[in-house]
Amino acid sequence: MRGSLDPAATRGKVVLCERGVVKRAEKGLAVKEAGGVGMIISNQFLDGEGVVPDAHLLPAVDIGFSEGKRVHDYIHTAASPTVRLSFHGTQIEVKPAPVVASFSGRGPSAQSAFIIEPDIIAPGVGIIAAWTNSTSPTELLPDERRTEFNILSGTSMSCPHVSGIAALLKAAHPDWSPAAIRSAIMTTAYVNDNLGRDLLDESTGNRSIEWAHGSGHIDPERAADPGLVYELSTDDYTNFLCSSNYTELDIRTITRTAVNCSQNSSKPWDLNYPSISIMMNQPVPTTSGNYEIIVHRTLTSVRDANSTYMASMKEPSGVHMVIVPDKLVFSRKGEKQQFVVKTSANASRLQAGASRTEFGYISWTDGERRVRSPVAFTWHQSF
User: Fold this and answer.
1) CA distances from 354 to 70, 224, 341 (A)
2) Where in the numbering of this chain does the Subtilisin-like protease fibronectin type-III domain appear (predicted)?
3) Per-residue pLDDT tens for 167-197?
4) Total number of domains in the chain
5) Domain housing 72
6) What pTM value is reported for the model?
7) How far apart are CA 168 and CA 39, in angstroms?
8) Which CATH number covers residue 304?
């Protein structure tokens, strides 16, 4: 914090600061006001290895948790530790990229186990964009600098990317519904980095899972021509709320219309969403047995051409899946075709109240386009 450093110990030094509590740029201001000439910001354990750029007020560098430990150990073991901060220019074609930022919003959803969250990931680290000259790039009062552009990171930086892509898709396809736009974005996303490997999670350094990246990283060009989309109506959402055990009063409060849940026979995983999340509740006591769950979906063609799509899949570990039919033929734009995903799995040994989730996917392709949906299968042990 500002005023917390001893100027006698700080003057002329580069200070190692840990991330957290105080804004990163404000840490630099604290170092500068105490006479420091530079700063190294080290991630803490929960921050992982991901670093984000800031408009610092003095020469500074951000490093991940493991590098921070090395610097910390060096400071405490070297007789006379020294440091040099140097700028090597903007780095392009960094590999691997993209990776899931450590601050990225994670699932599962606290509201519903029957939707994989997040839907999608998008660029959110080091985003350069227009900036108001009414405040400094750090938004700190002692910072008198003004600039037309700034560089920020956060989920709030991903949001305008997705919003802009949705607007472009609506301009290109004025007849598309919000559900169709979301479907196009989700089913055309990619899950491999520029090394051809599974996306990595900055927070762990390991493979990212669907609770971190959802359907994958957004790909606007492919989203413009998805071939097929998963459409949704108001009734679909109402049926989803009914099957999710919302009361009719709850639903009427949300929809502002009367509803009769006794007429609904669907399951919550039957919502025609571009991803599939299945929850298998195991009664107590359960240590064995096989459970079968059938998921219903409907695809709509958005192309003015005949097309044939073939199904493929990757089964979640411990789950057997069958897609029926595994071939869909469309002869016109707007035509709908239904299919089901039959799943079966043995009971999983879990403690009361515990859950276990495994991921897979289903995919439809006509040879040029791919319509991919992640599948989450969750075992939940009842109390």
Assistant:
1) 38, 41, 25
2) 270-376
3) 999 999 999 999 999 999 999 999 999 999 9
4) 3
5) 7-77
6) 0.91
7) 42
8) 2.60.40.2310
